[in-house]
Sequence to fold (1340 residues):
Amino acid sequence: MKRSYLTITIFIVVFGFLFATNAFAAPKKLVIGHPACLSGKYAKAGEQAIGGIKACIDWVNNVYGGVLVAGKRIPLEYKYYDCESKKEGVTSLIERLITVNKVNVVFSAYSSGLTLAGAPVAERYSMVYMDHGGASDRIFQQGFKYIVQTIGPGSKYHVGTLDMIKYFDPKAKKVALAYEDSEFARMTMGGAEKHAKKLGCKIVFKRTYPKGVTDLTPLLSDMKARKPEIVVGGGHYEDGQLFARQMSDLDINVKAVSLVASATLPAYYKALGGRIAEGVMGPSHWEYGVTFSPKGAKKVGLDWIGPGQDEFVSLFKKALGKDIIPDYHAAEAGAQVLAYVKAVENMNSVDQDKVRAALGKLKFMSFYGGWDVDDTTGMQIGHSMVDMQWQDGKRVIVWPLEAATGKLIYPKPKF
Amino acid sequence: MKIFVRGGDFIYKGNTQETLSESLSEVFSNRVKEEKMILTLLAGNLIHGLLLGGVYGLATMGLSLIFGVINVVNVGHGQFIMVGAFVALTMFTVLGLSPVIAIPAALIIGMALGFFFFYTVMRRLIRAPELTSLLATFAMGILLEEIAKLIFGADFRGYYWAVGKITLPITTIPMSKLYAFIGSIAIALFLYLWFSKTRIGTAIRSVMEDSEGARVCGVNVSWIHALSFAIGIGLTVMSGVLLTMFIPVGINPYMGGGYTLKAFVIAVLGGLTSPYGAFFAGLIFGLIENGAYTLFALIPGVAPFPLTVSLAFWMLFFLLLVKPTGLLGK
Amino acid sequence: MALLKLENITKRFGGLVAVDKVSLEINEGELIGIVGPNGSGKTTLFNVISGVYTPEEGKVIFDGKDITRLPAYKRAPLGLGRTFQIPRPFSSASVRENVAIGAMFGTLADKVTVDDSLEIADRYIDLVGLEAHRDKASGDLTPVEKKLMEIARALAMRPKLLLMDEAMAGMNPKDIDDMVKFIKRIKEEEKIAIISMVEHIMRAVVGLAERVMVMNQGAKLVDAKTEEALADPRVIEVYLGQPTEQSKWRSEVWKEGKGEDE
Amino acid sequence: MKKTLPKYYPLIPVFAAYLIMFLIGFFVPGMWQMVALLAFYCALGQSWNIFMGMTGYVDFGYVTFIALGTYGMSLGITYCSQYEWLGIGIIVIGFILAMFLASLSALLEAFIALRLRGAYFAIACIGINEGLRYFIEGAKIWGGSEGLIYFGALVQALGRDTVNQLTSFWADFSVFIIAALAAFLNMHYMRSKIGYALTAVREDEDAAKVMGINANKYKTIAFLTSGWLGAGVGAMAWGLKLGYVYPGDVFVIHYTVECIVVVLLGGAGTLLGPVVGGLIYGLSKYWLAVIMPGFQLLIFAPIIIIIIVAAPEGVVGLLKRRLKGTRLEMFIE
Fold:
């Protein structure tokens, strides 16, 4: 009898403890909140983003000396939780970040879906919500006031690629589109289709495949039968590997293959055992080897902030404690930190509405490239993409010509 | 309008302007060409489907065996396939051994895992309501995923086993796929002989039929339970190796989930309790999966890939209702 | 008018004819025994009456209504109660709840609330003498207690006709005598007709039923007064097999035969 | 009448728990979303428990109801927001649609349950869930895999402030209501003929039929109730609150598993179980996300296994056994 009361009491006490809020955020700090995807289906991108953010915060605090507000240098702090790549986690964690940790800005979780899930909460608390992982244009048609995008819109990914191929081979006509059926890849496909038609190409094949696909053989056989010259497609990591691998299995030799997301990652070449990856191209927001520099910024008349590329990479490695090369997820997230710092300094205030207004007007350049958003919707318009190609196990930037680190191999070598 | 829909534009929908600009004769000749092409495609896809089906079949045998003997649906099935994939990957990339050698290694690792999970967890759940066993196997799957993530990271990996390919008039087949198929058939055949010719195989079959009866006849039922679970897991892990011979990329800790659902469909097609049924159902499933894609692609305005997957699940659903003993069952 | 009337019931399982053209009439308040060896089709016949099976041929008429194709759950509210050979209690529920379920969905289904049913249940639990086990989970009862509980559950349905499937199988002679008395008593008190199925405990049959129907290989062999029926040479042959072994079997069977039905 | 009231005593701790959660969420700043998350788990557990606890069927495809509920709300808002005079009525329409879709799939599952049991039933329900998801994607209905995004439409129809209120308070509040309603219905069913009938059917369906119980009717009642509640949670917690839906995000079996974990932690078939389970699961998940981001699942998986093996009756089951014969007994069910 007594023990049962005791059991119940213990339960209540434990619950009470778990409910209790913990420490308040210390003043005189700017806190960046982030419901990160550390586990679940976006774990890979989540890890990269955390690394990128940590690296840039490190740079701001230790190299730059802190954010200059009202004549004082204030350090940045980073507070992140794991949302498990799930929408329920995002909403509750964002609220916790805003109310308990008193963060000054919220970074979105990876993917368009999770970005959308968190937006209403941020909106309710009138909190600047910076999106480095949701590429869907539709996010910005919902009337959210506090959202700002760093990642370029999905529809632009393959535009440059097609321009490049037209530049090198004006006769190439037959284009095949095969993308993953995800928000991001569909945007890319839409953009690519429109642009290909504008360039006078004929689209001989257009299909999507679902997420998590394990065998593309039927789709690729179909594509082979349509005899395309240029293949653009992809979506995420695993299907990008599968795509090239099974194209090789089926001996589909075309003049150019460009895959979004996966092809640009270092692991890609290794996973395909090298040879198959040779000549495969991929568009990217940022790639190790892109040469954006303060000098370049001056040339186009933009402010420069942040570490140089090599500095960023070493800070990134330090932040994660692992010897991995940052990819565009890291660069995006990192650049987002710099954008926030820039906006706060421009306004000389941390007030949410003012910062949001400043972000709307902000134009600058960093190691990530240009940054400029549409003032009303918050959509990214200033960032341009690069195209890279695997050549002898190295990622060579082949487009745009002014950023190129090597010459395009065209047509690509046979599988 | 009708003509255009019939003959013109199978490839993509909604682009009527281009279609309209084509002359009628062109449309007609296109139609003949198109039909011939579709038949070629179908034939090629069916060959690939058959090859893949063999691996699917083997990958499902473990699930059926475990359900047949201890009446537990292994919801973490796919995660054991993932373990197999990592075994193959590690042996190839770190030790430089061909996947053929990884097959027995995977069997041993899988059986060890099987015995471990049986004696720590499953033994206590055999007579429990299915709710608990479903959840327990699911939790095992998550555990494997997270451990794999801890060891290998969340990267998508792959390996390249260069053994050439053969080119047929209708399609190209990489040798590694062919080896995987032959391997699957050999293992299934071996298992069949083992089940029917050896004492212990007979004991397993008797427990499957009637565990009480077998107990009365002096079969050590709890040992058979443990052994069958271990063999089931061993088979599953082994099939993971064969699967990487088929699709040697995209290996990552979270790759298993999709295979679990596929294995369910196949196991049900095969009657859920019969490993051989599962093997043949795997072949049929492979054929349907690849064949249906080609046919669905003819319908304008739909996405054939998800429709194929959807078809598989509706098939499972109706089959369960109409004939729970499976396509090949009595 | 007969309470239950079976007309040429035939039930087949594949090629096997389990019940072969059986006709039977039972009047209100009558107690009749159905006797037959293992596999003679008694349980199948019970299942046809209670609606578990639908016969291929023939009619089941209960209380003037043709119920041949009526699902089982619609028969109970008409006044058809049943017990099972191997008791089938709702194990996780208590004795009281088990019996109350009978009251809730039997002939009183539309008239009683849950609380009423529990009260009715208490009455029948007292009647069968299980007061001490009222709140025990029914799965924990002994086999004999389970039988009693099943009878209480069936009685709580307030049936007009009660089908008792091997009520006495597996009991010792004293329990059988008690049970016989008990069945007779409830027949009088509750004013219901009872069909009791007995495999080969002749002791029970003799004491219990005024009338018996003997079945063999699915068909009706004899339908007569108990003494007459049991004296019938055909019955003796069916039951006792070859005359040479007659004496050896007779004593065993008459005293305490144990029966497991099909 | 005297007897009827004490029968509902076990609801007291359940409602008390919900009330405390609500008050904490309402008055402690920054707790609302977390409390909403807990309510989400409790409501799901509670609704799923009606299905499983009362019929004994393990519905692995339960998330279908939640997903269809989400779709109902999404379709209602997407297609009705253009009619300005409807005002807040679009949410009512969405809710009705959600209930309608859930009813259809509940009837379908009840139909399957006539023929299949145990693992076969579980797999068939998974089949429906996946089949539906890929059908939506493949046939491109309801926006196909592109889903529906309608936060903007909602803002246009109802104004920004109303929408802020709706998404960040009323949606969560309705989840509380649904959770409490689920508990009440669960209790009410347990204490009425439905509960007795389903107990009988669960234990021995053939015997139950002979006792006069229309097994299919009662099963269908339980399926429908459970489906409606699940769809209600989906419509509110996902449909209204998030303002978007992708098929790949809602038809996810993982959520069913979460329901099961919640129920099993607390105690399957009990009334208080899902509440306790939801609290334990939600809180520990939330705090693990906060304290050790990235390791929740690694910690959770073995814990689940240990609980299944060591305490299959769950916390409330243990508590019930402890409290047997004490005055507190009547509060725990």
